[in-house]
Amino acid sequence: MAAMIVGIGILGWLLGVGVNLLSDSLPATRRLRLPHCPHCTAPRPIAGWSALMAVLSGTWTCGYCGSARSLRGPVAELAGAAGALLLFDRDPRAAVLIPGLLVGFTFLLITSIDLEHRLIPHIVVLPAALLFGTIGILDPTRGAVKTLAGGLAGAGSFYLLFLLGDAFARAIARARQQPLDEVALGFGDVTLAGLIGLIVGWPAVVLALLLGILTAGAFSLGHVVVMVFRRRYSAFTPIPYGPFLILGASLVYYGGRELFRSILLR
After folding, report:
1. Which domain holds residue 193?
2. For residues 143-150, average pLDDT
3. Phi–psi pair at 68, nearest 5 degrees
4. How far, in Å, CA of 191 to CA of 241, rounded?
5. How far apart are CA 38 and CA 116, in angstroms?
């Protein structure tokens, strides 16, 4: 049993290493590259492929340009290991553990990229949608109808929000006589909402997206208050929306289904 726990922890750590590798490669090239410095693109030594191993091996800074790694590296690897162990402790059955690990890997990757680049790459979302759509269709507790309905509901609802946000941005740009640098809701958020719908299915997608919207609103309000207090407030400052949607989806997928059922049964 102890060996199994260690193995699961190592697996989660490796998934975190994969998140860092893809987060460094996909935003710039849309393809996988060997570990490299994102500042000067120099290859990393093998001992520095993992951020945690880089700390132990003294390769935290780039040997070519001297740039230090982002803290995202060790955070992603520790989150991967801790998440895998928590999932294993909750339900060690392969039919539950493997999809849970895949969902966690996907959510962590999208969050990392969106926080750093304000980008949700289609090259991540579309293959993930195909994978989790297939898993959901084959799941006897959901099947094709609930899985596809969840995806359509997620993508459709956020596409409408995307159109409204785009119209609002155009109106503000005309009023200010200058274009906005960035809209509040991008099309990547639409595809992410569809992916979330495929993962949690119908009707759980409603709660997942609602939680994401509420947490994003609460954060935005707190951000405005802090910026006003510091006298650094600027109207229409964009924030990455994807991590909040993923937070809502995670709450539902990793245990919120019981909460959703209790709400329905009231």
Report:
1. 121-266
2. 94
3. -80, 155
4. 12
5. 12
